[in-house]
Amino acid sequence: DVPMEELGKLVKIKQGDWYSLAKTRNAAEAIVNRLGEAGFAAADAQVLPQPDPEGNVINLVFNVVPNNKVY
């Protein structure tokens, strides 16, 4: 298994950064690649941008599904 903290370190997006589709895709790809290295060949990671209605902020929610481990 891959600890959540390790996956979090793969996300190079910090609070206050400008929104970048490329950075969000890179983060999702890095998570999927790391899970693949751990044996989760069918892992999936999606980034769900959620605009904050009270300000000029977009919250990013990472939906990570490791699926079954392959041995």
What key attributes describe this structure?
2 helices, 71 residues, single chain, alpha+beta
Describe this structure in words.
The chain has 71 residues and is an alpha+beta fold. 32% of the residues lie in helices and 25% in strands. The protein contains 2 helices and 2 strands, in the order H-H-E-E. The protein has a two-stranded antiparallel ribbon with strand order 1-2. The protein starts with a helix and ends in a 6-residue tail after the last strand. The model has no long low-confidence stretch (mean pLDDT 94).
Number of helices: 2
Strand order of the largest sheet: 1-2
SS elements, strand count: 2
Structural class call reads alpha+beta
For this entry, what is the oligomeric state of its chains? Answer: single chain
Summed up:
This protein has 71 residues and is an alpha+beta fold.
List the helices and strands and how they pair.
Blueprint lengths: L3 H6 L11 H17 L6 E9 L4 E9 L6
